[in-house]
Design a protein that fits this description.
The complex is a heterodimer of chains A (452) and B (278).
Chain A lengths: L3 H5 L3 H44 E7 L4 H7 L13 H11 L2 H10 L12 H8 L6 H4 L5 H13 L2 E5 L2 H6 L1 H11 L4 E6 L3 H5 L12 H32 L4 H13 L4 H15 L1 H4 L18 H25 L3 H9 L4 H30 L2 H6 L19 H9 L4 H35 L1
Antiparallel strand pairs in A: 1-2, 1-3
Chain B lengths: L5 H11 L10 E12 L2 E12 L3 E5 L6 H7 L10 E9 L2 E2 L7 H7 E4 L10 H11 L6 H11 L3 H4 L12 H14 L4 E5 L7 H14 L4 E5 L3 H7 L2 E7 L5 E8 H6 L4 H7 L5
Parallel strand pairs in B: 3-8, 3-9, 6-7, 7-8
Antiparallel strand pairs in B: 1-2, 1-4, 4-5, 9-10
The chains are: A mainly alpha (452), B alpha/beta (278).
């Protein structure tokens, strides 16, 4: 009797063919997976290229007054740039050019100096600032050098962007651009401009794309994220600790758990509606700051404030934080809990001393990733009522706000070319912020992973 | 099956064994008809055992017969399993530890436990020993306590220069002795050991066994082991547990170790210790 294997398995030539066929099918799958990966990489690279392409490039600029002349008029040498001038010098330039009426209006919005007025008489100072209802310009902090510089550029230099070119154009057809600019805009300067720059970061929002910056939006985003974190981290981690360490496995707790998992997948705009209903409308007294006596009677925020936005985003990422924290807590070995309990420690002593420290890197990583999501959210903020155009920095949790994604959204919807450039620059700023957060998460995880 | 009253048996054994001081002394822990349930499943059935002060009692038996479950019932570690339930009486110096008035936290300080796999805290060696004392409100000099505990666990000489290093940096055997030191630091009366050497190499195992012999002077020790030589070498009393047809663990035979291993009364015991099953 022959062994059954002899008859039923292929041998010899047949075997070689079958094996080759199996390898072939494996190779086809491998190539398919590789193609999928390549597609993803190409998509990402295209996105990145698009953004970078718009963020740098040649610009045909025409100035009403050349900055060099302005600097020279104050008696400085060739080596000094307009940007380097002190605030006092810049204010002098403003005084020379703009009318007193315009100056007064600027000053009533925001003073140039804390201790004196420039466009008004000193006697007016008492009337305006020391009265029962001081004008906004007196209560807010004075303009800083970047702000005044922006005013000088906007009001005195008055650059006009005549045409912009993308990075690829600027690199590959430089000669053509120079020829075109010389022919069409003989008065203009052709300069290579990096739209994302230090100046772009510190300048406030402005109607003119040539001088507008993202400071207002970045500060708004940071404020919002801070409120989000303050709310969702303690609440989320607390809920996760309860669910993992204390909740018994009954129907109610399972229902809660399922709902938390589902909430993590709810579209963000729905959280926006929730935030609008709760924080903006129902809790207007709280979110406008009236409840705390800040914001004042003159506040026009109607509850559409940083607090409302921060809490809305807090609700949005709360389920994500809970789930991440739960996973981190669950990953702590059972033996560690038993060791603690077996020594006669209470549950909380064990949780506090052993479970939480071991889970902390995971909790922090999850929280940072959730916050990164909040930083990039746009839809809920639109619903909650982000301001589309404000030029003053947020002064606290009860001020009106805009955020970086909102700013980008607003800029991209403008028809002029230059807004596309600054939108791309703002996208780079946002991406850098997000990558920084993610890198922090990775570093935290690696640091703690090595220690244990 | 296990209807013989082991208490009577020990008394009898004690009187006829030469140098029969094994029977002298009081019981640190005693169970009567103890059953442990996980949900509706009865894991352990009608266990009645007595553990003498300053003696080492070994629990042996095949895998899944409920040895660990019995052990965990003695310091209420089964409470951590939500569905677990204990019936019958578990007396610690005459006090039923499952009475409502008894706080399991206090039980666990008086009845310490060493686990199968060394599980030091991911903290310094010093903190590993000091933490239990701290949470239990120890009021004495902490440095002394740490040193004493490590000395008793025969670890002091190896770690005295690196007390601030992580407990996880030690070898497996050292980690297990650290866990013993940590348990000693809260001054329990009974130490439960759940297969304390099963994750260790033979040399580390030997050191732990020697240590257990030294600890006997101060503590009552109950040890679960898979290793029959270990039970024979290291224990004064041995209880053999086996499953019945419902998979519930029961005590088959309980007595002086020498008797169990040389003159078992039950065929089942003899089969097990001679390696014919299990």
């Amino acid at each position: 009797m022959s062994l059954p294997g002899r008859a039923t398995y292929p041998e010899g030539r047949e075997l070689a063919q079958v094996v080759a066929g199996r390898h072939r099918r494996g190779t086809i799958f491998k190539l398919t997976f590789l193609a999928a990966l390549m597609l993803a990489v190409i998509a990402l690279l295209t996105l990145l290229l698009q953004v970078i392409d718009s963020s740098f490039g040649y610009v045909a600029l025409q100035n009403e007054v050349q900055p060099r002349e302005l600097v020279a008029s104050l008696g400085y040498g060739e080596d000094v740039d307009l940007v380097d001038l002190s605030k006092a010098d810049l204010v002098v330039l403003l005084q020379q050019t703009i009318s007193n009426n315009v100056g007064r209006r600027l000053e009533r919005d925001q003073r140039f100096f804390d201790d004196r007025l420039v466009f008004e008489n000193e006697s007016k100072y008492v009337e305006l600032c020391a009265g029962a209802e001081p004008v906004p310009g007196c209560s807010a902090t004075a303009r800083d050098q970047p702000g005044v510089y922006q005013l000088v550029v906007e009001r005195v230099v008055q650059p006009t962007v005549l045409q912009t070119w993308t990075l690829l154009e600027s690199v590959f057809s430089r000669g053509d651009i120079h020829a075109e600019a010389a022919a069409e805009y003989p008065q203009a300067d052709l300069v290579f401009r990096s739209w994302v720059s230090g100046r772009f970061l510190v300048s406030p929002q402005a109607p003119d794309p040539a001088v507008a910056g993202v400071r207002t939006a970045v500060l708004g985003s940071l404020w919002i994220v801070a409120i989000t974190l303050l709310f969702s981290f303690p609440v989320g981690v607390g809920a996760a600790i309860y669910l993992e360490e204390y909740a018994s496995d009954n129907r109610l707790n399972r229902l809660i758990q399922t709902n938390i998992n589902n909430l993590a997948g709810v579209p963000s705009i729905i959280y926006g509606m929730l935030g609008l209903a709760i924080f903006v409308r129902a809790l207007e007294g709280f979110s406008s700051g009236a409840f705390f006596g800040v914001g004042g009677a003159g506040a026009t925020t109607n509850g559409r404030t940083i607090v409302a936005a921060g809490l809305t985003l807090g609700l949005l990422i709360l389920p994500i934080i809970i789930i991440n924290a739960q996973e981190a807590i669950r990953a702590v070995p059972r033996s560690l809990r038993q060791a603690g309990m077996a020594l006669g420690a209470t549950k909380w002593q064990t949780t506090r001393a052993h479970v939480l420290p071991s889970a902390l890197p995971g909790i922090l990583t999850g929280t940072i990733l959730a916050v990164a999501r909040a930083l990039g959210e746009t839809a809920p903020l639109v619903v909650v009522g982000a301001s589309t155009f404000i030029t003053t920095d947020p002064s606290g949790p009860f001020s009106k706000f805009t955020a970086l994604p909102i700013q980008i959204y607003q800029w991209t919807s403008r028809p002029q070319d230059e807004f596309r450039n600054i939108a791309a620059a703002a996208i780079i700023v946002l991406l850098v912020m997000l990558l920084t957060l993610n890198a922090t998460a990775v570093i935290l995880r690696n640091r703690y992973a090595r220690r244990v | 099956m296990a209807t013989d009253d082991p208490g009577i048996m020990i008394a009898r054994v004690g009187t006829r064994t030469p140098g029969g001081d094994l029977a002298i002394g009081t019981h640190a822990m005693e169970t009567t008809d103890m059953s442990v349930f996980y949900g509706s499943f009865r894991a352990v059935k009608d266990v009645s055992l007595q553990f003498r002060d300053h003696r080492i009692t070994a629990l042996i038996g095949p895998s899944g017969c409920g040895k660990s479950t019995v052990l965990r019932a003695f310091n209420r570690m089964n409470d951590l399993v939500p569905t677990a339930r204990v019936e019958g009486r578990v007396l610690f110096h005459g006090q039923d530890i499952y009475e409502d008035s008894v706080d399991p936290v206090e039980v666990r300080r008086r009845v310490g436990m060493v686990f199968q796999k060394p599980n030091p805290f991911p903290k310094s060696i010093y903190d590993n020993v000091a933490w239990g004392a701290k949470v239990n409100g120890y009021q004495g000099e902490m440095n002394d306590l740490v040193e004493q505990s490590l000395r008793q666990a025969a670890l002091w000489d190896e770690v005295k220069d690196k007390l601030d290093q992580s407990g996880l940096s030690l070898s497996g055997g050292q980690q297990q002795r650290l866990c013993i030191a940590r348990t000693i630091a809260v001054t329990p009366e009974i130490i439960l050991m759940d297969e304390p050497t099963s994750a260790l190499d033979p040399i580390a195992t030997l050191r732990i066994e020697e240590l257990i012999q030294e600890l006997k002077a101060r503590y009552t020790i109950i040890i679960v082991t898979h290793n029959m030589q270990q039970a024979a070498r290291a224990s004064d009393f041995t209880a053999f547990l086996n499953m019945d047809e419902d998979r519930a663990g029961q005590v088959v035979e309980f007595g002086v170790t020498a008797d169990i291993f040389t003159r078992p009364k039950k065929q089942e015991t003899e089969d097990y210790i001679t390696g014919r099953f299990g």
